[in-house]
Specification:
heterodimer; A: 347 residues; mainly alpha; two-stranded antiparallel ribbon; 13 helices; globular; disordered N terminus; B: 501 residues; alpha/beta; six-stranded mixed beta sheet; 18 helices
């Protein structure tokens, strides 16, 4: 059996490179969760106040966990969408445009059809899921049929989306004041608002797609060896287009939750999703060249990003430092997950 | 003046060069021939400094030298004209000629293009090529590029005081007949300034051009022949002469195939300039081997059977139906399985586990409405792990971590379990150790017994002869000869080589 174990264990079998890469994101999250309360404790200690580590922490509390959860859910949906694309070895940068269009169209349809979930206005929800899917589909079609690299095709489609959203609103903000819809945020079960549970539901759906469906398997096959997937009779182009379509649907869910969170739909609803979601996927340990990773990695990644954002506010660091820290984290994550021996040139 | 004495080179598990003695005199053209894997390329790499020998000495004019890299070899007057054209096609001709040596034209950090063009024109004159040195290389024909490459090597003349030794690795493979003549004329003219080492698969060309010919086999120089004594037959015998072990290739297990039924029919099929006018039939239980040198069109034929490349003319039928759509997907649907040469690239998906790899081509059989039935996948994998004795701790093992032989078994299990009855094997034993090779031979026999038709591109000629029922020899994309290989009446290596080159 010697040939089977040939690849394991430069460190005597206990800690392999693969294992480090696998567990590093979770470890980072745990360290962050303990680090921020430590800073709080340090500050109070200097000022001579009573402070029991963790117990008296404002950061390490259920209330703050819910706050992080609320901030993280829309980004989680968008990041899950892009996870599928990155597993295929492509990238999708259209999320900001797609989220804006979906948010704005949802608001228009919702208000036009009754303005409350109790009326026909609930149809606005399936409508925007469809819109997201169509935008993703077009995105995939442009990428595959016109043979444009995915980053360029999706970036361009994203701009088209942002422009279209602005055209629809003319720069206005649209308020959604339906109490039933806003209950996504306002009603809490066990301290967490409903939107967190909705996101959890979609996370489980994404997990099911990833691990239990032919489509999910195909994403990994295309990312792990496109040539081979093709030579095994897979329709790689079809898998690609379906991947972008699926991603578009998750972007739409992200848009719904984003509107639910602040009760406003506007062109700017999509802002910042690109940086946050790509950062989260990469920091979570999904490899940029495809084939490795998954939605649970993305969950951890989204939490890391949001914990950093939140924690820095709690300990009082300015916003630009947060972006800098996140940028450095991305580099560290990619460095950790790249086996540089096998990559000679990077373009 | 350039001499190797008892040069040895080992790679893990392979003794690639065994005490090679090799000598080039001033103004001489030395030929180097041998089968694939005989050690020619390793020897070339030692000569131009890409590999360092483990033992023996290299001397130039009786002074011992040692090269750490090709650049040091160049500084001693040794230049290489590569088989795979090494010009960078988006640069201009002159930039290519002086690549890495631009410093001589630099004034205050700026390149003097006029001076470089002038110098390039001087080099091009040596190879009698009248083109504008500021042309982009991609605009040149292959023959012109070959000459530019030679001109590039000849820049050594100005840089080096001593004599030049120039290696030509298969320089004629992309050239037409007249162009070959021109090149030979040029090389003969240039012997006034340089010695040449000429490597080619085309025996007639080697005989025509070389003053002396080194014959290599299994990492050894088995003979050195003067041009006047050289005979094609004698050299070919020396290149291949070795015993074939019938046991090893499971020849006793070879059974006659079912000639009544036909799985694949090729009727004068051509694909561009890859292969022309190829016809054959594949029957159930038959092992059909395509034999030819590298680039003779063997792989392209396999890819057409599988559906990866559509032919430009002729008709292909599989199981009595004419094929009109050439896609990998429809090939799989017709029951064709393909195990490509590059296992790591096209055979298994590293990162996916054993059962995921096995069902990759037949996921529809293990899913309903797009939802996978993973427990069935696992039980399939367990069945085949047992059947083929695949060494893996469990079905969750990442296939990238399996040994080459076991990866090959996973690929075969993928096709066999999916019901493929036409299997295309491209170098199935490449890079495997002897035990793993025997496993593959055993599987080939078992598949034949089960009525599977196999088209094989073998790693060595012995393997081709040992395994096959039928051999088709192809040269430069054209059909040469068909051999029946009933056990006990198999063609010899010599019969094949004779038609190959």
């Amino acid at each position: 059996m010697s040939d089977v174990t040939a690849q394991t264990a430069p460190f005597g079998g206990l800690v392999t490179r693969d294992q480090i890469v696998k567990w590093a994101p979770l470890l980072v999250l745990a360290v962050l969760l303990l680090l921020f309360p430590f800073f709080e404790w340090l500050e109070d200690f200097r000022e001579g106040k009573d402070h029991v580590y963790l117990l008296d922490s404002r950061f390490f509390s259920i209330r703050n966990a819910a706050r992080i959860g609320i901030a993280a859910t829309p980004a989680l949906m968008v990041a899950i969408g892009v996870t599928f694309i990155i597993i295929m070895g492509s990238i999708d940068l259209s999320m900001e445009g797609t989220v804006s269009v979906c948010a704005v169209l949802f608001a228009f349809a919702f208000l036009a059809w009754g303005g409350t979930l109790m009326s026909w206005a609930w149809l606005a929800i399936p409508l925007v899921l469809l819109v997201g899917a169509i935008m993703g589909f077009i995105n995939g079609l442009v990428h595959v049929r016109l043979k444009i690299p995915s980053f360029m095709a999706s970036l361009a489609m994203g701009f088209v989306g942002t422009g279209f959203a602005l055209l629809l609103t003319g720069g206005d903000r649209i308020r959604i004041e339906d109490e039933l819809f806003r209950s996504l945020l306002t009603v809490r079960w066990l301290n967490f608002p409903i939107m967190c549970y909705v996101a959890l539901g979609f996370l489980l759906i994404a997990w099911f797609i990833q691990s239990r469906t032919t489509l999910g398997r195909n994403f990994y096959a295309v990312g792990g060896g496109e040539e081979l997937a093709h030579a095994s009779g897979l329709n790689v182009n079809r898998v690609r287009i379906m991947g972008f379509t699926l991603a578009g649907m998750f972007f739409a869910v992200g848009a719904l939750l984003a509107v639910g969170r602040i009760g406003i739909a506007e062109t700017a609803t999509g802002n910042n999703f690109m940086f946050v979601s790509i950062t989260a996927v990469v920091v979570g340990g999904t490899a940029l060249w495809g084939g490795i990773g998954g939605v649970w990695n993305t969950l951890v990644g989204v939490l890391i990003v949001n914990v950093i954002n939140n924690g820095m506010v709690v300990i009082g660091l300015p916003g630009y430092v947060q972006d800098g820290v996140l940028g450095i984290l991305v580099i560290i994550a990619v460095v950790l997950s790249t086996d540089r021996k096998s990559v000679s040139f990077v373009k | 003046m350039y001499e190797l004495r008892k040069v040895d080179k080992h790679f893990p598990g392979v003794h690639a060069l065994k005490e090679i003695d090799f000598k080039v005199n001033r103004g001489e053209i030395v030929g180097l021939v041998g089968e694939n894997g005989a050690g020619k390329s390793t020897l070339m790499k030692v000569i131009y400094g890409s590999y360092q020998p483990d033992g023996g000495t290299i001397t130039i004019d009786d002074k011992a030298v040692r090269f750490q890299n090709p650049r040091q070899a160049m500084e001693h007057g040794i230049g290489m004209v590569f088989q795979e054209q090494s010009l960078i096609t988006n640069l201009t001709v002159m930039e290519n000629i002086f690549l890495g040596y631009e410093q001589q034209f630099v004034n205050f950090g700026v390149i003097d293009w006029k001076a470089m063009a002038e110098a390039a024109r001087h080099q091009l004159k040596k190879v009698k090529l009248d083109i504008d040195p500021s042309m982009t290389t991609s605009q040149l024909s292959f023959a012109q590029r070959q000459l530019v490459e030679l001109a590039k090597v000849l820049t050594l003349e100005e840089r080096i005081d001593g004599d030049l030794v120039i290696l030509l690795d298969e320089p004629t493979s992309v050239l037409a007949k007249e162009e070959v003549e021109l090149l030979f004329q040029l090389v003969r003219d240039l012997t006034k300034r340089a010695s040449f080492i000429f490597v080619s698969h085309r025996m007639d060309e080697v005989l025509e051009l070389s003053d002396r010919i080194y014959v290599m086999k299994d990492g050894e120089v088995v003979d050195v022949v003067e041009q006047k004594d050289a005979e094609v037959d004698a050299i070919q015998h020396k290149m291949v002469g070795r015993e074939v072990d019938k046991e090893y290739y499971r020849e006793q297990k070879q059974k006659p195939y079912d000639a009544e039924q036909v799985l694949v029919t090729f009727d004068s099929v051509s694909l561009g300039n890859r292969y022309k006018d190829i016809s054959f039939e594949l029957h159930p239980g038959e092992v059909l081997c395509l034999v030819g040198t590298e680039g003779s069109g063997r792989e392209a034929i396999l890819r057409t059977v599988y559906g990866l490349d559509a032919p430009t003319s002729g008709s292909v039928s599989i199981k009595g139906e004419q094929v009109s759509r050439f896609t990998a997907k429809s090939g799989v649907a017709r029951g064709v399985g393909y195990t490509p040469r590059e296992r790591k690239v096209e055979g298994i998906v590293a990162g996916m586990n054993v059962y995921e790899n096995m069902t990759l081509s037949q996921m529809d059989n293990y899913s309903s409405a797009g939802v996978l039935n993973i427990s069935e996948e696992k039980s399939l994998a367990r069945t085949w792990i047992e059947k083929l004795a695949i060494k893996t701790p469990d079905v969750y093992k990442d296939c990238g971590g399996l040994s080459g032989g076991n990866q090959q078994k996973v690929v075969l299990a993928k096709w066999r379990s999916g019901g493929s009855d036409i299997i295309l094997l491209d170098h199935p034993t490449r890079g495997l150790d002897i035990g793993a090779k025997e496993d593959v031979y055993e599987m080939v026999r078992e598949m034949s017994d089960a009525g599977v038709g196999i088209v094989l591109v073998a790693d060595t000629l012995e393997e081709a002869i040992g395994l096959s029922h039928t051999i088709i020899v192809i040269k430069d994309g054209e059909f040469q000869k068909r051999f029946d290989c009933t056990p006990g009446d198999k063609p010899s290596l010599y019969d094949l080589v004779h038609h190959m080159i």
